[in-house]
Amino acid sequence: MNGAARTVNVTVLVLIVTVTASGVLAFAVGTPGLAQWVVGVHGASGLGLLLLLPAKSRIVRRGLRRPGRSRKVMGLALAGFALLAAAHVVVHHRTRDRARRARWRPLVRRTDVDRRRALLGTGVVAGSALLWLVAPGRERRETGSHGIADATAVPVTQWMFDPVPRLPGRPLRVPGGEVDLAALPPTTVRAVLDCTGGWYTEQEWRGVRVADLGLPAGASVDVVSATGYRRRFPAAEAGTLLLATHLAGRRLTAGHGAPVRLVAPGRRGFWWVKWVVAVEVVDEPWWWQPPFPLQ
Ligand SMILES: Nc1nc2c(c(=O)[nH]1)N[C@H]1C(S)=C(S)[C@@H](COP(=O)(O)O)O[C@H]1N2
Ligand SMILES: [Mo]
């Protein structure tokens, strides 16, 4: 393998690791400032892979003509991943408007001409960052999600396999007994529900603060769904966590978590536990749980 080919291969590998790590991380972060960086790195490294695709495919074609099976497998795997990344970029931007799409096509072709310069690692980094800046999708939120304004148009989304249970308006189980949310002081907050599936919505939620439940002291609070789905929060967050019964002035629908769902401002959608039946106080730290729900 010559020097240029090695540079391309190493760069492709570094970009694959970066794009994967930042992609997983992007799922976890909900705070706009941080998300902007993570999504920025993710987008830029993905576009960098796209940029290297022509050079990489030439290396693979050359490699296939030479003997040595494991090298061929490696080469094809790297190229396959780069292709996947390219497809992923296309899918990501499928929904953007036509004017922006028109700007996108010539851009990709120009990078073809610039292939030689792209061979230099610095060129790739600069090119990726630039592509990320001019690429469509800027109208999205910092997390990469697109906005939904209408409260009645908010998608009903499950993390994975949860069914939509139809629950009666039961009291909530808390340590040492039960509470009736209707008997506690209501609070209204505006908060952004931002699903890792790629949409967000800022809505008005009404319910009772976890801090107003009169819970005993402890390190963390577990919010438990009728389905078994659960998330753990630091007890210090009880002041901002809301057990909501209403969305935009209306009772929650079954799909959105009736009779009670959690509103966790600043956290991604998968923290917003629906169909809450119990709140538990535990001594384990909040991070002592799977980083993502398993159901
Ligand atoms: N019990 C339970 N709660 C859940 C989920 C789930 O699968 N089960 N999905 C979460 C995810 S991933 C998101 S984005 C939001 C979606 O809320 P919505 O259906 O009201 O839009 O609910 C969260 N709460
Ligand atoms: Mo989600």
UniProtKB/TrEMBL annotation:
<dbReference type="Pfam" id="PF00174">
    <property type="entry name" value="Oxidored_molyb"/>
</dbReference>
<feature type="transmembrane region" description="Helical">
    <location>
        <begin position="7"/>
        <end position="28"/>
    </location>
</feature>
<keyword id="KW-1133">Transmembrane helix</keyword>
<feature type="transmembrane region" description="Helical">
    <location>
        <begin position="73"/>
        <end position="91"/>
    </location>
</feature>
<keyword id="KW-0812">Transmembrane</keyword>
<feature type="domain" description="Oxidoreductase molybdopterin-binding">
    <location>
        <begin position="180"/>
        <end position="285"/>
    </location>
</feature>
<keyword id="KW-0472">Membrane</keyword>
<feature type="transmembrane region" description="Helical">
    <location>
        <begin position="34"/>
        <end position="53"/>
    </location>
</feature>
<dbReference type="InterPro" id="IPR000572">
    <property type="entry name" value="OxRdtase_Mopterin-bd_dom"/>
</dbReference>
<protein>
    <submittedName>
        <fullName>Molybdopterin-dependent oxidoreductase</fullName>
    </submittedName>
</protein>
